[in-house]
Amino acid sequence: MAEALLEQVFGKLSGKVDQKPYEILKKYKGTDLEYKEYEPLYACVEGAVAKQKKKAFFVICDNYVTMTDGTGIVHIAPAFGEDDSRVGKNYGLPFVQFVDEQGNMTEETPYGGIFVKKANSLVLADLDKEGKLFEAPEFEHEYPHCWRCDTPLIYYARESWFIKMTAVKEDLIRNNDTINWIPESIGKGRFRDWLENVQDWGISRNRYWGTPLNIWICADCGHMHSVGSIEELKSMSVNCPDDIDLHRPYIDVVTIKCLECGKEMHRVPEVIDCWFDSGSMPFAQHHYPFENKQLFEKQFPAQFISEAVDQTRGWFYSLLAISTLLFNKAPYENVIVLGHVQDENGQKMSKSKGNAVESFDALETYGADAVRWYFYVNSAPWLPNRFYGKTVTEYSRKFLGKLWNTYAFFTLYANIDQFDPTHYQLDYEKLSVMDKWLLSRLYSTIHEADSDLSNYKILETARALEAFVDDMSNWYVRRSRDRFWATGMGQDKINAYMTLYTTLVEFCKMAALMIPFMTEDIYQNLVKTVDPFAPESIHLCDYPKVEKRWIDKQLEEDMGHLMEIVVMGRACRNKANIKNRQPIAKMYVKSSFPLSEFYKTIVAEELNIKEIECTDRISGFFIYTFKPQLKTVGPKFGKLIKEIRNVLGNVDGNAVMDQICANGKLKLVINEEEIILFEEDLLIESSQKKGYFTESDQKITVILDTNLTPELIEEGFVREIISKIQTMRKEAGFQVMDKIYVFAKGNETIAKILKEHDREIRSAVLADQILLGETKGYEKKWNINSEKVTMAVEKV
Question: Is the distance from CB of 247 to CB of 298 less than 8 angstroms?
Answer without folding.
Answer: no
